[in-house]
Design goal:
With about 190 residues, the chain is of the alpha/beta class. It is built from four helices and five strands. The chain has a single domain, classed as Ribonuclease H-like superfamily/Ribonuclease H (Nucleotidyltransferase, domain 5, 2-Layer Sandwich), CATH 3.30.420. The chain has a five-stranded mixed β-sheet, with helices on both faces.
């Protein structure tokens, strides 16, 4: 499935190019979209210590969390993010509507995974959004996963007392992504 997706991708992009409404579209950009959960529970990661010494660190065990939705362009380095309390189809549609208003004259080709709430069979998408679902069980085709890994490494091993403090840190990290002239997602 992965090989077939990659093989057909060039033809799909060519069809999109040929069917463009050039009166309404000034630019075209490719985005990779995903969502990730960030919570107050302290994320553990490996640390270096002397042999036989257990690392000591603060830890908070809390089940409060927020979801961060994000679309990232490896072409321009732009990103668009939204924070919610959960994930569902209605929130995905709201995310797409808000994203379509960001640079409304830009056609956004968005690569998405196969999460159940990404189903848009009975939904009319905004005119400037085209969704390209990747095959199931192929997260390596969505480089947005690397952005989440980078962000979670930045908040790992730290204790956040409230969701507001955590959200401020997440906003700071998103801003640092937006300030990059380009974002290379490997």
């Amino acid at each position: 499935m992965r090989k077939r997706f990659l093989k057909n991708l060039k033809n799909r992009l060519e069809n999109i190019r040929l069917n463009l409404n050039k009166d309404n579209i000034e630019t075209v950009n490719l985005y990779f979209q995903d969502e990730s959960r960030f919570g107050l529970i302290t994320k553990q990661k490996r640390v270096i210590t002397a042999k036989g010494i257990k690392p000591i660190g603060k830890y908070k065990h809390s089940y409060l969390y927020k979801w961060l939705w994000g679309s990232f362009s490896p072409i321009t380095g732009e990103s668009f993010c939204m924070t919610t309390d959960g994930v569902c189809k209605e929130l995905f549609i709201k995310y797409l509507e808000d994203f379509s208003k960001h640079k409304p004259s830009e056609l956004k080709i968005i690569v998405i995974d196969n999460a159940a709430f990404h189903s848009t069979k009975d939904v009319e998408l905004p005119n400037n959004i085209i969704l390209l679902p990747i095959p199931p069980y192929c997260p390596e085709l969505n480089p947005a996963e690397k952005v989440w890994q980078w962000m979670k490494d930045k908040i790992a091993m730290k204790v956040y007392d409230t969701l507001e403090i955590l959200e401020n840190k997440i906003d700071e990290l998103v801003d640092s992504i937006n300030k990059c002239e380009f974002l290379i997602i490997v």
